[in-house]
Design goal:
heterodimer, A: about 400 residues, alpha+beta, 2 domains, five-stranded mixed β-sheet, four-stranded antiparallel β-sheet, 12 helices, about 15% strand, B: about 210 residues, alpha/beta, Rossmann fold, five-stranded parallel β-sheet, 6 helices, 9 strands, globular
C-alpha cells in the first residue's frame, strides 16, 4: 500500500497541517496547564480550609459621615441580621451586646502606677471566643469580672508606648495578675465597684470582652441608655475560601478584617484568570480544529483527480481515506504526546518555584489532564475522520 | 458472468445520425464470459462510452445494463470496488497512470490490493512485452506506447471475468501489438475470462470470435 500513501500524501497543503499542528499544540498546552494549575490551587486552598477552624468573621458597617452626624445608626437592624443569617455561607450568626451604662476602670495598687479610664464592654456567647479559661465565668458570689482584651492592645503598649516612654514592658502573665477596680454606674448615679481581672488576650475579636451572662445581668441592673442596634455581628463560616462571602460583604457595604478573607478573594481572582485561560485555549483549539479540517479537505480536493483514478482502479473510498486518517492520527498523537510533555515540564518547573515559597504544588500531572487530552483528541479525530470519509465518498462512484 | 445491455445508448449519442444497425440499435446485446469481442468504430461513435458505462464510471445513458442479471444502478460503491477488484478489469484509453510513480509502482499499486501476481511474474510479463528496462522509471516520462504496455500489465494484475480494453494498442507498432495481444489472450484463457476490445481500425491479425459495430 506504500504507493497509495506516496500518491495521496504528496501534496503541498501539508504546510497548512503544520500550522494546524502548532496551533493545536499551543491550545492544548494552555488548556492542560490551566486545568493542572487550577486543580493544584484548589487543593491547596481546600487543604488550608481543612487545617483552619471555621472562620470567625466580625462584621460592622463602614463608618461614614452620616453616622458621625447622627443621621442614621451604625447598627445592624434585625432584618439585616436575618438576611445575613440566610446566606448559605453563614453557619452561625450572633450579634454583640454592649454596656448600657457608664463604666470606669482604675488601679488600686501601690506597686503599679495609678491608672483611670472610661471603658466599654462587649459580650458574645462563649462559643465564639477563642480563649478557653477556667476563670472565664461570671460568679455573682465571687463578683470578679473576667476580661479579655485584644492581643494587639498589649502589643501596642509593650512595643510602642512602653518603649517610647521608658516604662517597663509587661508580660501577659504579669498583666493577668494585676487587679483592677471596675465601677459600674446606674441611672441614679449610684455605683458599685467590682474587682476585674484580665484572663486572656484574643486574636480573633478586637474588643474588650466580658462574659455574656455578666453583661446581660449588668445591663438589667444598671442599664439606662437607650437600646441601640448591635453595631457588630460575628458570623462563622465553614468555608472561608467561598467567593460569595466577599461578594456579599462588598455588595452590602459592610466592613471586616480583609486579611481573613484573603483566600475568598484569591479564589475569585483565580477563577477569573482560569476561565479566561480556558476560553482563550478553547478558542485556539477550535481554530486549530478548523484548520485541521480545512487542510485535510484542501488536500483531498487537490487530489480529487487521483482519488477518482484510484476509485476507477477498484479502490473503495474507505481504502482511499486511510492515508488521510493515518496522517491525522499521527499528527494528533504527536500533539497529545508533545502537549503532555510540555505541560509536564511547565508543571515541574512551577512546582519547583512554588516549593521555594513553601507552596505544595504537585509536580506530576493529574489524572484529569490525561482524561481531558484524550477526550478532546478523540473528538477532533472523530469529526475529522467523518469529514474525510464524506468527502472521499463524494468523489467515488 | 454475463454483461447484458437492453436498449442501452449513451445520452450524447441520441442526437447523432446513426446507421440503423449495431449495438446502439439492438434491443438486447449479450456478452458472455470466455468469449472475445472486437468492437470496431471510428472516433466519436461511443466506444469509450460503452466500456465506461459497463464499468460503472459513467451514468449518462438510456436503457439498462445488467451484470449477471443485476441492474448496475442498484450496485453500491462497495459492490463496485469488489467488482473492479475481482470481476472486471479495464485498460483505459486515457491509461490512468500516476505520472509521479514508477512504472513498477503503478503496477504494484493495483497488485497490492489484489495480490494477484508475484513481483517475478510482473517482471516476466514486462520482459515479454518489452518494457522491463523502464520499470524503475517514472511513468510520466515514458512514451505513450510504453505507458500503454504498463497499463496492460496493471490490468492483468487482478482476477477478472471480463477484460475491457479500450484502444489499448493505438500507439504500438504491429509487432508489439501482437505480442501484447498474445499476453492478454493467454491471461484471459487462464481465467476463462471474456474480452471486449475496442479499436479504431479493423485488427485483421486479431482473431476474435465476434466482431461488432456500434
Amino acid at each position: 500500500m506504500n504507493q497509495l500513501y506516496a500518491i495521496l500524501w504528496k501534496d503541498h497543503s501539508r504546510a497548512h497541517l503544520l500550522w494546524a499542528f502548532l496551533g493545536t499544540l499551543a491550545g492544548f498546552v494552555l488548556l492542560l496547564s490551566g486545568i493542572q494549575f487550577y486543580t493544584d490551587i484548589r487543593s491547596v486552598l481546600s487543604e488550608n480550609r481543612d487545617l483552619l477552624d471555621p472562620e470567625y468573621i466580625v462584621l460592622n458597617k463602614q463608618v461614614n459621615i452620616g453616622q458621625t452626624l447622627g443621621l442614621h445608626g451604625a447598627g445592624f437592624t434585625p432584618e439585616e441580621i436575618e438576611e445575613i443569617r440566610q446566606q448559605p455561607f453563614a453557619e452561625q450568626v450572633s450579634s454583640f451586646i454592649s454596656n448600657e451604662f457608664p463604666i470606669r476602670g482604675y488601679t488600686d495598687n501601690d506597686r503599679i502606677p495609678d491608672f483611670y479610664t472610661e471603658l466599654f464592654f462587649e459580650a458574645i456567647p462563649d462559643q465564639y471566643i477563642d480563649i478557653k479559661s477556667e476563670d472565664w465565668k461570671w460568679d455573682p458570689e465571687e463578683k470578679t469580672i473576667p476580661i479579655i482584651i485584644p492581643q494587639d492592645f498589649l502589643n501596642l503598649y509593650n512595643f510602642g508606648f512602653a518603649q517610647s516612654q521608658g516604662l517597663p514592658q509587661v508580660p501577659k502573665g504579669v498583666l493577668s495578675m494585676v487587679n483592677f477596680r471596675i465601677r459600674l454606674t446606674g441611672r441614679s448615679g449610684k455605683y458599685d465597684d467590682y474587682p476585674g481581672r484580665i484572663v486572656g488576650f484574643s486574636n480573633r475579636i478586637h474588643s474588650i470582652l466580658v462574659p455574656y451572662e455578666f453583661l446581660s445581668w449588668a445591663n438589667e441592673t444598671y442599664g439606662y441608655f437607650e437600646k441601640t442596634d448591635p453595631s457588630r455581628i460575628i458570623l462563622v463560616s465553614k468555608d472561608p475560601t467561598d467567593p460569595s462571602i466577599i461578594r456579599f460583604i462588598d455588595d452590602k457595604g459592610y466592613d471586616t478584617i480583609r486579611e481573613k478573607l484573603k483566600s475568598s478573594r484569591m479564589n475569585i481572582i483565580l477563577k477569573f484568570i482560569i476561565s479566561f485561560l480556558v476560553v482563550v485555549a478553547s478558542l485556539i483549539i477550535g481554530l486549530a480544529f478548523l484548520v485541521f479540517l480545512l487542510s485535510l479537505q484542501l488536500m483531498i480536493s487537490r487530489s480529487s483527480q487521483k482519488i477518482v483514478r484510484l476509485n476507477k482502479l477498484g479502490f473503495h473510498f474507505r481504502e482511499i481515506s486511510r492515508p488521510y486518517i493515518l496522517l491525522l492520527l499521527i499528527l494528533l498523537v504527536a500533539v497529545t504526546g508533545l502537549s503532555l510533555l510540555v505541560t509536564g515540564i511547565i508543571t515541574t518547573q512551577l512546582s519547583r518555584a512554588a516549593g521555594e515559597w513553601n507552596l505544595a504544588i504537585s509536580s506530576s500531572l493529574h489524572g484529569i489532564i490525561y482524561g481531558t487530552a484524550l477526550v478532546l483528541i478523540t473528538l477532533i479525530f472523530v469529526f475529522n475522520v467523518l469529514a474525510v470519509l464524506v468527502s472521499t465518498k463524494k468523489l467515488c462512484k | 458472468m454475463t454483461i447484458r445491455l437492453e436498449k442501452m445508448i449513451p445520452l450524447p449519442l441520441l442526437e447523432q445520425q446513426r446507421n440503423g444497425s449495431g449495438i446502439w440499435e439492438a434491443d438486447a446485446v449479450l456478452f458472455e464470459k470466455g468469449k472475445s469481442y472486437l468492437i470496431e468504430a471510428p472516433s466519436g461513435k461511443g466506444k469509450t462510452s460503452l466500456l465506461s458505462i459497463i464499468y460503472g464510471i459513467r451514468k449518462d445513458y438510456r436503457g439498462a445494463v445488467f451484470l449477471n442479471d443485476r441492474n448496475i444502478l442498484e450496485l453500491t460503491g462497495k459492490a463496485w470496488s469488489e467488482i473492479r477488484k475481482a470481476k472486471l478489469s479495464f485498460i483505459f484509453q486515457g491509461l490512468e497512470l500516476f505520472d509521479e510513480l514508477t512504472a513498477y509502482d503503478n503496477i504494484h499499486l493495483k497488485n497490492s490490493i489484489t495480490r494477484e501476481k508475484s513481483s517475478t511474474e510482473i517482471r516476466t510479463m514486462a520482459e515479454r512485452i518489452g518494457i522491463a528496462e523502464f520499470l524503475s522509471k517514472p511513468a510520466g516520462i515514458l512514451s505513450f506506447g510504453q505507458q500503454q504496455r504498463v497499463a496492460i500489465i496493471r490490468a492483468l494484475c487482478q482476477p477478472f471475468e471480463f477484460l475491457l480494453a479500450d484502444e489499448c494498442f493505438s500507439h504500438m507498432d504491429a509487432g508489439n501489438s501482437h505480442i501484447a495481444l498474445d499476453l492478454i489472450r493467454e491471461e484471459c484463457n487462464k481465467r476463462g475470462a471474456g474480452i471486449i476490445l475496442t479499436s479504431l481500425n479493423a485488427m485483421k491479425e486479431a482473431a476474435m470470435e465476434e466482431r461488432m459495430e456500434l
